[in-house]
Amino acid sequence: IPGVSSGCQGGCLTCSDYNGCLSCKPRLFIFLERNGMRQIGVCLPSCPSGFYGTRSPDRNTCTKCRPECDSCFNKNLCMRCRAGYYLHLGKCQESCPESLVCSDTQRECVPKCPV
Amino acid sequence: ALRAVIKVTLLKNEPTGKPITLEGLFVGGSAGSAEGKLMQSHPLSLCNTSEDERQESDFISIVKLESPERKVPQCLPLLHKARLALERGAQAVIFDVTDDVNAKFQLPESDSLLRPVVLMQAADAEMLMELVNRNEEARVRIDIKREDPKWPHYD
Predict the structure, then answer these.
(1) Fewer Cβ in 10 A, N or C end of chain B?
(2) How far apart are CA A72 and CA A67, in angstroms?
(3) How close B152 comes to chain A (CA, Å)?
């Protein structure tokens, strides 16, 4: 395949020595991996934690979750919040509504214990 | 176009290390001085759909542009990519245009570039990219190259 240099990792469709993967084989996601001062493209079957996958006709990309979210399904649906935030209706908040309490272990807003 | 002088000092050699001096060309309207840590940006990182993590300190982005045959999705015109990199906090942007000689035509004179954008190529660009490839942290200082005044020839 033109453009595929020997340095191509598995999953790359095209790549270069300096930028790593430039495009991926079908169904794979391109993730821009930061390592010190370098940033290279890698092709993955799914995006790493802290990122979510977006599919489109020309390429599938990994995009960062919101800053307060550790793991998300997409930009607006968090699955696990960062420490100090609490999940409520898919969003990470610094406090919980009246009827709920903040659970630090689960990092979620949870129902109050029955008295 | 004004020429840029790029002085590169490896962090491991600071403060005594002698800088490497390279040259480039400012994109019209962006000439000026800048300094920061060299950080590579993948060409796809400068698309609207992706966000590069906010770097903690002053940094200068270097982007290796690929040959058009590689069919890297363009996602944004180069001028917009340069603007996006500056908006994300880069003190300056360096484009290695060795493999994309037409890139300069995508970067016309512009007053919308608030900080320096420099085109580098060939040996100078390769020297810089080799540092990146070896992950050798470096500080870069960009200045306008002072051309020596050409004295008229007296007999």
Answers:
(1) C
(2) 11
(3) 46
